[in-house]
Structures are given as structure tokens and as C-alpha cells.
Amino acid sequence: MSSFYPFWTNATVAHESQQHHFPCCFPQASIHINDIFCTDHAAKEHDMKGDDAWETIILSNYMIDFEWLCQAVPALAMVQKQLIVLSGEKGTATVRVVESSAGSGDGSCTKVTRYSPVPESQDNHNGMIWAAIAGGIPHEKIVILEPPLPYLYGTHHSKFVLAINKHGIRVVICTANFIHDDWVNKTQGIYIQDFPFKSNVLSPEGGGDSNMGAPCLPVDDYQLRKGEDFRLYLQLYLGQVGLLPLPRGNKSRQIVSFSPQDLDAFDFCSAKVWLFGSVPGSHRGQRLMSFGINRLFSVLRNVSLSTEAALTNTTNPNDTQPVILSWQYSSQGSLNDKFLKAMQRCMTAPDVFVADLQVIYPSEDEVRCSLEGWRGGLSLPVRLRCCDPFINARLHRWGSSGDSLSSASELWRYALPHIKSYAALDRARRSIVWFALTSANLSQAAWGVGGGGRRGARPTRERFPLYPLLRAGGAL
């Protein structure tokens, strides 16, 4: 599964219902959830067997319906080593990260961070683990972790998959929960890219060569730095969500078989995107520029747009030309002028004029006529007190306004958006300057802007999302 621009959408009921009447209604870039776990190395009916079986799978999401997921993705029950779940649902963990004191030879004590199983009891009924077992996943092969949250009202909102087999690693970042409605009734965005083992690092089966992902040689220094940034940031993020950096041979690896340092074995130099995410808490020092809107600001400032365009052989709009910003989301929090100006400032170069800002949001008619009807509006929560005149004046409808069902774009209006995306276009709307696929709605909590007004405070965040950012002057 590969693409020059590795972004996909989900195949909704609306598109599939019209596929036989209007073949063009089924977008070529649309996939089902099971496609995420398919490989190109064998016939589809044998994808998850033998050499192509996934050894380790890491699932991260806010909502997971294992009863449905195991039916939709048979590959989960065929995982060879371990299925690691990072769950946003509280009270589902089977393993926790704990700190303990360990004595040393000189009489001092050091803190040791380790995994500790959560005792099972009749009072602690874990519906998620039993649903996974009922779906065919062996009990001994699944562990569930809950990322640490410094706030009671914080959430683990990150939606991604890491899948490893003998060919390499697949990185998937999406906007959909692992539930039925999100994948068949709503519009979602999906980033997928495969990366092989390093040529000088042997895979677990003893072979370093791989056809998984694009070959990385020859490659220039810029792309090497981009791949290194991808790996380091993914390692940083995985450490923040509770995966411990454990050395090989540590007995704790029997509890959780993957650590962020395992990413060192893979070659990420073919990475098409930059990663940025948010981590709950108040960050200072070097960490201040590592998360949220500050990370977006850092990437857009430090990445050479002309270099990206040269690598992709695409037209490069001048960095100083006016741009159109596009904000597309499904909810918004309480807004103020300071936050809105900060968002625009971080999404453009210092000398770039914002010609227009378009906010994409479903209209009342689009909700009423959607696949879910009025019920679909439950996924579009905007309180009246959160409405803002600046946003209201820039609203654009979600879907096409035509009555025809003869094209894929005209059917999107029936699948309400759960996708969140932010982008900058050139003024003529002929090329994209950058594009970010996110799970972040328009709120200060999601983007990490504002420190609560306390002296010396730093931007705070309440969620754990992870996003891919495409920075290129590519023609639309």
C-alpha cells in the first residue's frame, strides 16, 4: 500500500451504495479499515498468514469496539507476538506503569519505572479485554495500557497503528475511532506509510532486505534529516504515552514486547510527512517547542519549502505570496482574539499575507440529509457560547451544493466529517503549500495555546493526539 502522497479517505456507505450505478462515485483513494492491515506481498486471501503475518501490532485510540473490530480486521487475531492497546477508555488497563525505589551498592536509592500487571478481580470487570478475547485474540497476546494523564479531565485522543512484520513497520495515523459508525457513516482521513528495516540491521528472521516501503537509497542529506526527525519524534511521543524504553533482555519485556527504541531498527528516510502532536501538561524549556501549535510553528519555519518542492518535482509557490488558510473541524471550544491570531501566525511565514481564511463546517441541511440524519449532529458539538463572530463570518459548507450523485465529491456531503484538517493554499487555489491531517478541533486545549493567565505559565494541553504534516508545493 503506497502513494506518492500517502493520504486516504474511508469508504463510506454513501459511496458503496452508488458504486454499481456510478463507478466514479467510489474514490480510488478510499479504503476500508481492513485494508490498513493488508500487505502487498501475497494474495489478499493469504495476507495475514505465514511470512506476512504481523508480529506486533500497537493500536491507539479513544474509543475501541473490539467486538466489531475483530470481525472487521481478522488480522488482529493472527498477531504472532503481541497486540498492544493504548486505550483512551479509563478502567481498561491490564498493565500500568509504576515507579519504585531501588537500592544501589553505594547505599543510594534510584527511581525505577517499570510495567506492573493490574490484578484481576470480580470487582474489576474489564469489558474491553473480554471483547478482544471473544473476537479470537488470545489472552496472553494482548496488553492494554492507559497513557498517563496529569489532568482529571484530560483524554487520550490519539488514533494510530504501528504494525511490524518481517518486512518492516507500517505507520498509520487516522481520525477515526475504532467503531463501526466512524468507518462507514462519517468521513475520515488516514495517513499510511511503510518503512523497511535498515539494510545494516537484521530483521528478527535474519533478513535485512525488504520490499516494504520505497527504497531509500540514494537519498540526500535533507531527506535523511527528515527521516531522522520522523523517528526521533515518534520515539518521543511513544515515550510520552507510556511505552517504556527498556533494554533488550529486561524481564519486563515479557509484559510489553515493544519499546520506542525498537524504532532504531527501521529506515524512515522515505518519510513523506513531518510529525507533530500534543502531550497533556505545561511544558517549558526545550519541550515548549516540541508539542502542539509550537511544533507546527517550528516545522513550518524550519523546513525549506523550496527543498520539499524540488524533491517532489512540483510547482513551488513563493513563500512570500498570499495564502488561503483552510480550517476544517467538527467542534470548537471557547475562542478569543489572542488564540485566533496565534493560530494564523503559526500557520504562515512572518511576511506572508493571509488573503482569506475559510472555515469548513456542515450546514443544518447537510446534517439533516446525512447518512445518520439528525443523530449525526451529536458528533458536531458547538455550544452557543462558543460561537465566535470571526469564525461565523468565514463559514463554508462541508459538501457540494449540487443535487447530482454522479461523482465522489458530491457524495461526501452525506458522510458528515469526523476528519479534521488544516491547510494553506496559494491564492489561486492551484497548489497546496502545506496540509495537516489531525484529530484536533479548534480549541485551546487541543492546540496548546494559552497558559491560564498565570505569571510564567506555559501553553497547556489536555490531550494526546498525533498528526502527520505534509509540507510541499504540490499541485492540487
Summary keywords:
single chain, alpha/beta, Endonuclease, Chain A, seven-stranded mixed sheet, 12 helices
Please outline the helices and strands:
Elements: E1 7-10, H1 13-17, E2 30-31, E3 56-61, H2 66-72, E4 82-87, E5 95-103, E6 109-117, H3 127-134, E7 142-145, E8 160-165, E9 168-174, H4 180-184, E10 186-187, E11 189-196, H5 221-240, E12 274-277, E13 281-282, H6 292-302, H7 305-312, E14 323-328, H8 337-346, E15 354-360, H9 364-368, H10 389-392, E16 395-396, H11 408-411, E17 416-417, E18 420-426, E19 431-438, H12 444-447, E20 460-461, E21 466-475
Parallel strand pairs: 1-2, 3-4, 4-7, 10-17, 14-15, 15-16
Antiparallel strand pairs: 1-11, 3-8, 5-6, 8-9, 9-11, 12-21, 13-20, 14-18, 18-19, 19-21
Description:
By secondary structure, the protein is α/β, with parallel strands linked by helices. The protein has 2 domains: 7-101 and 110-199 and 221-265, Endonuclease, Chain A (2-Layer Sandwich); 291-310 and 320-447, Endonuclease Chain A (Endonuclease, Chain A). 19% of the residues lie in helices and 24% in strands. The chain has helices spanning 13-17, 66-72, 127-134, 180-184, 221-240, 292-302, 305-312, 337-346, 364-368, 389-392, 408-411, 444-447; strands spanning 7-10, 30-31, 56-61, 82-87, 95-103, 109-117, 142-145, 160-165, 168-174, 186-187, 189-196, 274-277, 281-282, 323-328, 354-360, 395-396, 416-417, 420-426, 431-438, 460-461, 466-475. A hairpin with a 4-residue loop joins strand 18 and strand 19. The chain starts with 6 loop residues before the first strand and ends with a strand. The model is unreliable at 41-47, 200-211, 213-217 and 450-460 (pLDDT under 50).
